[in-house]
Amino acid sequence: MENKKFNICIVGGGSRYTPGILRMLVGEKDRFPIGKITLYDNEAERQAKVGAYGRILMSEYYPECEVVDTTDPETAFTGIDFAFMQIRAGRLKMREMDEKIALKHGRIGQETCGAGGFAYGMRSVPAVCDIIKDIRKYAPEAWILNYSNPAAIVAEATKRVFPDDYRIINICDMPIGIMGFYAAALGKKSSELTPRYFGLNHYGWFTHVYDKKTGEDYLPKLHEIFKTPMAAKGNQHPLDNSWMETFKFMSTMIQDYEDFLPNTYLQYYLYPDHMVSIENPDYTRANEVMDGNEKITFEMLDKVAAAGKLKGTEYEPKGGMADGHAGYIVDLAYAISHNTDEVFLCMTENHGIISNLTEGMMVEVPCHVGINGVEPLNVGEIPTFQKGLLENQFAYEKLTVDACLEGSYKKAWNALTLNRCVNDTQVAKAILDDYIEANKEYWPELK
Ligand code: G6P
Ligand code: MN
């Protein structure tokens, strides 16, 4: 393994995140050397801009690494060791529809939570499964590190459509992001801490945050610190207002719930009325992203292409290549390829891990990661409050996947009704019917 160069494919190559992933891979070239990166997307023109940027970046900083962008699955997947999969079926335009349709009915339309997560799941599941089938055709043994959203629903689907394919790993960066805040508050590095956590994706709790060296559990200290609203970070882009609010709101959840520390996404399930009340139905997170990060990223790509270089321009990567959003995915690939057995929070099937939750549920828990994929740590029994919430959420997620795979209107309606952020039969039907209309191009037909 020591001198092996890996070939990877970034599925969703045209994403606004891909330039950051490419820079991150440059920064990791000693630890995780790469021979070839293929970018795969269904939108050739958009992806070509990212590909051109990637080739300029590599020519200056990583000449031995080839970058190819393609819409052909055979070219994309043949010979790869890893697929980093991060697709957004329907792009941000449909994210905006998800949000605005739900808000019109007075409900949360968030990307992964509430009705929005349902609509996105119905688009994402068929798209993700089709791509995985193609990957398996051309790269039967490649590791597929999937972080396409809504990850909980996608994980439930991949488990069912590809049973026993342990080389598909579903993972999310949110717990890692939150750990970054904990580490900063403690004056530590994230790598010095190890979490214990349980839940479903975007629906979980930290039960312990240990110092790897001393074994001290910082949970009580963190509870104390984060009871006070986090100060806004000075360099935050004004269009990231909703994230600032989210991090500030963590303190309310921590004050109201003394046990554990919450994933930020719990705000949607535990405070749905408040969350609806602070949304602007005419300007949602999709708008913030389209007018902010996405626009800035694609303007940058155009300028770099025009200049033909990064060095000596305002886009020269300064202060290292690290990229917060993407680094963890290489940590995961490294753990697999070098069999480190390091602990990551991953989604995996509940086989007695959480003893009082349904068997087979895709739970998010600490797992050792190595050459056998993920090997979960035991959690044991969880309290009744969390058990009730999680069983409800799992039933909703399961029905969503059923509805999608079977084309069942009834199950889709049941699913939405069960979602804590919807919770009403008539509202669920009204939202569902509007979503069906908006998603004609993307959803399976529901009968
Ligand atoms: C976190 C979550 C992702 C989510 C992203 C949204 O990273 O873990 O699942 O997609 O936030 O960020 P955005 O900037 O698109 O709102
Ligand atoms: Mn996530």
Characterise this structure.
The protein is of the alpha/beta class and 447 residues long. The chain contains 17 helices and 12 strands. It has helices at 18-27, 44-61, 73-77, 91-104, 114-138, 151-161, 174-186, 219-226, 241-256, 266-270, 272-278, 285-291, 293-307, 327-337, 384-406, 409-418, 425-438, and strands at residues 6-11, 34-40, 66-70, 82-85, 143-146, 168-171, 193-200, 203-211, 261-262, 342-349, 362-370, 373-376. The strands form 2 sheets. Strands 3-2-1-4-5-6-10-11-12 form a 9-stranded mixed β-sheet, with helices on both faces. The mean pLDDT is 95. Bound molecules: 6-O-phosphono-alpha-D-glucopyranose and manganese (II) ion. The site of 6-O-phosphono-alpha-D-glucopyranose (G6P) has 7 residues, from helix 12.
Write the layout of secondary structure elements.
Elements: E1 6-11, H1 18-27, E2 34-40, H2 44-61, E3 66-70, H3 73-77, E4 82-85, H4 91-104, H5 114-138, E5 143-146, H6 151-161, E6 168-171, H7 174-186, E7 193-200, E8 203-211, H8 219-226, H9 241-256, E9 261-262, H10 266-270, H11 272-278, H12 285-291, H13 293-307, H14 327-337, E10 342-349, E11 362-370, E12 373-376, H15 384-406, H16 409-418, H17 425-438
Parallel strand pairs: 1-2, 1-4, 2-3, 4-5, 5-6
Antiparallel strand pairs: 6-10, 7-8, 8-9, 10-11, 11-12
The site of 6-O-phosphono-alpha-D-glucopyranose has 7 residues, from helix 12.
Strand order of the largest sheet: 3-2-1-4-5-6-10-11-12
- The structural class is alpha/beta
Strand content: 15-25%
Count every helix, treating DSSP H or I runs of 4 or more residues as helices: 17
Largest beta sheet, briefly? 9 strands, mixed
Gyration radius, in Å: 21 Å
User: Which kinds of small molecule does this entry bind, naming each only once?
Assistant: 6-O-phosphono-alpha-D-glucopyranose, manganese (II) ion
Low-pLDDT stretches are: none
- The N- and C-terminal alpha carbons lie at a distance of 51 Å
The tally of strands reads: 12
The average pLDDT value, as a whole number, equals: 95
Shape, per Cα inertia axes: globular
Succession of helices and strands: EHEHEHEHHEHEHEEHHEHHHHHEEEHHH
Helical content class: 40-55%
